[in-house]
Design brief:
Catalyzes the conversion of 4-hydroxy-tetrahydrodipicolinate (HTPA) to tetrahydrodipicolinate. The protein is α/β, with parallel strands linked by helices. Helices cover 34% and strands 24% of the residues.
Amino acid sequence: MIGRGEAMAQLQFGVIGHKGRMGHALEAAIADAGHIMHVGVDAGGSIGPFAAHCDVLVDFSAPDALSANLGAARVSGKPILVGTTGLEEEHFVMLAEAARAVPVLQSGNFSLGVTLLAHLVREAAARLGPEWDIEVLEMHHRMKVDAPSGTAKLLGEAAAAARGIDLAANMESGRHGQTGARREGNIGFATLRGGTVAGEHSVIFAGPEERLTLSHSAENRMIFARGAVKAAAWLVGKPAGRYTMNDVLGL
């Protein structure tokens, strides 16, 4: 959210996926920040006809809609913030291509606290040796459809990058049965689902006879909406390129 001492022009937001839980939170956060949701379209709708009249597009819809939404941003020349989860490698290729033409900011989590947590995870992973095992634990509400969460992957990527390894090649999840001993250097993921939990994430560094845990708890999805609105407003006026929440916070 914009601080009381900061002045910013009122912006027109185009929100894709506005009928979902996150869409409702975004609408409230946009109003709280003094901006306007110029248009909201459902996850299956097209922002294309309205994009030219918006200052920034915000996409919290579905992976299979990403191509069309990025296309609308490119045609209209508008910056786009993408918070859709469950993205695969092909989607990241699309994001990179779109970023050649317009500013693109994509993240698995727009919480300012989680952004700082990822920074701390990166610092810890870089300084603690390979004898420190890394495990990522996350819990979300029963309705969440993808696992591990985008935030869990973000934290795992932060740890992997700090150690100079590829997460996909060093990821352990869904352990069951006779799995054998844990392989040194792997990053483990555990997923919990139930109730109405907005989001709980912990990164555990388990070393010889000691353990370090870095955690974040989301009490309400409004923290993600406020962070997304702050990031989208920051994106307006930036040159074409890929941006992250680290850029927004100057990390």
